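Narrative of accomplishments. A recurring question from our advisory board has been how the design workflow behaves on a single, concrete structure rather than in aggregate. To address it, we present the structure tokens for one chain from the evaluation set, followed by the sequence designed for it. No filtering or post-editing was applied between the two.
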């Protein structure tokens, strides 16, 4: 019976399956490195898609405005709403609101007083409301503000009073204030002599608001209140402190000077800010110019700010994070793609070299070189496709969950949904497969171009002839080193690829540890330079210096003369015609004990972060707000800081002279030697006006919490770097053993022990590892810069540094991995069959 002749396709398929079976461990390495690369790439794209989707969902549900037009609260013009409306196109919307910079407890808030529930920049999502909440009587507090300060959480419960304070300094210098003294109730005071007055509204609901999307500690929170409740809050505080018979008269005077309407008017407040929703494709800059021209045409130009969505601080921070999430997609995975290509190159090269005789036989029986090349390309594509599919599934499930923790810490976002970027994953798979196929083709082309007889012979070594090793013992002791150097020279391309693989692993390790170093250094730097006190206090409301000194003197252990009283609040910073940013405002004593910033009394100091984002530099005039006043001052110093970013100004600065004596909102406390800091902290917390008390350990813990998202990313980098190192070293070490079967068998025949045989292979591996580690450590710093520049956190400014210990850790970790893998695979030396390994076609 004649056997049926097998087709070429069937023959090549069986050959491919046999190759997979014989080299399963090396092929698993290709699958693993491919899966890791695609997991990172697709996972990071999914992370960016999920984050952008969450942000767009907030803006869409909250119908975020495209343009904000603001006038001073005391220069309101009731005709502005209609004047701006005439400039809008059909379908565009505008709403007015009274936008008042206020505070509640220790939190800065932006009080938005509206006539009825807004439809532009409105509360969105599920609202938690009380029974008394109506369309014209409400006070909505943001969920994040409700949770931010546990010390005053009772203020933020449904049905309870919500205390808020705002500046009335433009009124308290008026001569009419003195007239109020005669109408003050017994035991009460003329509250309008103060810079700020505290009012109370009733919380009727909790909300999410699109302008409250940023959780950063220095960002004020929008609180939405109805005009009706605001009028009641003002009326209540007047009735509480003044005789009831004079209430109407007093309210009329107050309303006149604060820019509000008469009590009998349909609405009490007049809007000083207008939010505009434009049609898609509208030229915002052209509309902005028209609005500016409208205000300039008025006899009294009361325009304060006109801001596009792109220039709003909360939007800028979010937009930067979305952009950085996209950029990060192409920074980190690139290393893994390059290493994956190197692994494929070395593995296929070794496979083709081992299959020389088989390739020659196939060509001798009539199989074309293109069929042989196609067989190896298909083998590569199968391996790459398998790894790609694993990464396509795992990436979107794992990576967004890890990196998404950073966004949940910084922003108030809706629930994330899994997203699988199919198109991007498909394109990545095609590009990966094409690159792998090209590498395979280049490897196979040379071998398949040889004649069958040439392919059936072992490759000729081109190593230069050297003097034979003599048999003296003194020379034999260097045999393992010489053999290792010979192997490196003979397989230079493979050695170079090994170095590049180790280089990538080390660079990632240095990057991961370097990020931790940068964060640790930044925290320690600021604690030493700006928080060198023992306890930091913040107050629910402003307090006078004398009042604070009296209270602190009663607590044993406080070094009162070394206590500093300060004001820390939020402000908007910008240079003329430059971008705006929201940051901290620090008012410090003229001779402070703890702040390591030296600036002239008539100048201000700004942090490097402020300088970078606003474009301000030393000698420039920078604009900022304090107590609802627009101020300008010369920048004297740009200081270095990690989290203590903002503007620093002395309380004796001339630009503050017309504001009056400040009430303090915070204090830096020095504890005398020998006293328990925690005990004194507890005593300070018992004071009714103290909102929070933080030791240095508390500050460090808070910053660590904010940076936890970055630390999660750092740990991910280190884990992936170790996985990369394991895969690369395992694959190359395994390939090294297989390629040197003949050499190992020869050494065994000559009587060399297992230790002596293994030492030559270990020296070769460690030498290549050393070269890769050295170059990788040099590239670790620039790679860390690339990674961190795509992961900026709004709260901090990175002070880049890598400690020497990081290089030691990276060096040792890579070497330990190399040694462990070599030791684990050394058992293969025992399994080398001497007779089969020494067979030759000759």
């Amino acid at each position: 019976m004649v056997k049926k002749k097998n087709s070429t396709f069937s023959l090549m398929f069986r050959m491919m399956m046999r190759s997979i079976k014989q080299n399963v461990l090396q092929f698993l390495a290709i699958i693993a490195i491919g899966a890791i690369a695609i997991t990172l790439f697709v996972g990071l794209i999914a992370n960016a898609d999920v984050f952008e989707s969450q942000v767009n969902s907030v803006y869409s549900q909250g119908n975020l405005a495209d343009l904000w037009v603001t006038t001073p609260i005391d220069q309101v013009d009731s005709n502005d709403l209609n004047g701006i409306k005439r400039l809008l196109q059909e379908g565009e919307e505008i709403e007015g609101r009274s936008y008042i910079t206020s505070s509640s407890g220790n939190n800065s808030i932006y009080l938005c007083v509206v006539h009825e529930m807004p439809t532009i920049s409105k509360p969105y999502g599920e609202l938690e409301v009380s029974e008394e909440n109506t369309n014209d009587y409400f006070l909505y507090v943001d969920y994040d503000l409700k949770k931010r300060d546990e010390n005053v959480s009772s203020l933020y419960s449904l049905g309870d009073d919500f205390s808020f304070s705002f500046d009335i300094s433009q009124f308290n210098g008026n001569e009419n204030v003195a007239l109020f003294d005669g109408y003050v109730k017994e035991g009460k005071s003329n509250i309008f002599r103060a810079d700020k007055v505290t009012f109370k509204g009733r919380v009727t609901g909790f909300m999410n608001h699109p302008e409250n999307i940023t959780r950063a500690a220095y960002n004020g929170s929008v609180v939405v209140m109805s005009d009706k409740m605001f009028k009641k809050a003002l009326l209540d505080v007047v009735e509480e402190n003044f005789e009831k018979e004079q209430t109407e008269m007093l309210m009329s005077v107050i309303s006149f000077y604060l820019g509000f309407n008469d009590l009998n008017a349909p609405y009490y407040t007049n809007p000083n800010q207008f939010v505009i929703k434009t049609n898609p494709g509208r030229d915002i800059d052209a509309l902005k110019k028209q609005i500016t021209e409208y205000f300039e045409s008025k006899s009294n130009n009361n325009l304060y700010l006109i801001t596009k969505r792109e220039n709003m601080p909360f939007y800028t921070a979010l937009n930067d994070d979305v952009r950085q999430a996209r950029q990060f997609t192409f920074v980190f995975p690139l290393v893994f793609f390059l290493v994956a290509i190197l692994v494929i190159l070395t593995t296929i090269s070794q496979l083709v070299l081992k299959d020389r005789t088989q390739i020659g036989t196939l060509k001798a029986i009539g199989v074309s070189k293109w069929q042989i090349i196609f067989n190896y390309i298909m083998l590569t594509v199968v391996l790459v496709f398998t790894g790609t599919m694993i990464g396509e599934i795992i990436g979107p499930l794992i990576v967004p969950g890890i990196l998404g923790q950073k966004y949940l810490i910084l922003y108030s976002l809706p629930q994330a949904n899994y997203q699988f970027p199919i198109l991007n994953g498909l394109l990545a798979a095609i590009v990966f497969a094409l690159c792998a196929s090209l590498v395979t083709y280049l490897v196979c082309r040379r071998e398949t171009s040889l004649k069958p007889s040439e392919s059936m012979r072992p490759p000729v070594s081109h190593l230069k002839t050297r003097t034979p090793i003599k048999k003296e013992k003194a020379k034999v002791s260097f045999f393992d080193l010489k053999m290792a150097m010979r192997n490196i020279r003979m397989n230079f391309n493979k050695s170079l690829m090994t170095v590049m693989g180790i280089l990538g692993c080390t660079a990632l390790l240095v990057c991961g540890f370097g990020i931790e170093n940068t964060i640790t250094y930044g925290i320690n730097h600021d604690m030493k330079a700006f928080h060198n006190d023992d306890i930091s206090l913040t107050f629910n409301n402003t307090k006078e210096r004398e009042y604070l000194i009296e209270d602190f003197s009663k607590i044993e252990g406080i070094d009162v003369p070394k206590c500093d009283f300060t004001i820390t609040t939020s402000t908007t910073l910008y240079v003329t015609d430059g971008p705006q940013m929201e940051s901290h405002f620090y008012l410090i004593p003229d001779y402070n004990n703890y702040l390591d910033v030296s600036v002239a009394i008539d100048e201000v100091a700004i942090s490097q972060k402020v300088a970078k984002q606003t474009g301000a530099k030393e000698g420039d005039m920078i604009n900022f707000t304090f107590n609802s006043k627009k101020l300008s001052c010369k920048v004297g110093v740009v200081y270095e800081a990690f989290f203590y970013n903002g503007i620093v100004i002395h309380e004796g600065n001339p630009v503050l002279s017309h504001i009056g004596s400040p009430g303090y909102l915070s204090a830096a406390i020095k504890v005398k030697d020998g006293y328990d800091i925690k005990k004194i902290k507890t005593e300070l917390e018992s004071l009714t006006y103290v909102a929070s008390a933080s030791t240095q350990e508390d500050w460090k813990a808070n910053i660590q919490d904010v940076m936890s998202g970055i630390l999660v990313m750092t740990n991910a980098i280190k884990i992936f770097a170790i996985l990369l190192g394991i895969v690369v070293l395992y694959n190359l070490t395994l390939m090294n053993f297989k390629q040197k079967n003949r050499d190992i068998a020869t050494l065994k025949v000559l009587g060399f022990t297992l230790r002596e045989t293994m030492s030559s292979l270990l020296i070769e591996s460690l030498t290549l590892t050393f070269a890769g580690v050295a170059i990788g450590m040099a590239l670790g710093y620039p790679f860390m810069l690339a990674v961190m520049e795509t992961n900026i956190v709004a709260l901090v400014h990175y002070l880049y540094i890598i400690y020497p210990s990081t290089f030691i850790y990276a060096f040792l970790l890579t070497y330990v991995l190399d040694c462990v893998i070599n030791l684990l695979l050394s058992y293969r030396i025992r399994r080398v069959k001497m007779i089969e390994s020494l067979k030759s076609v000759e």
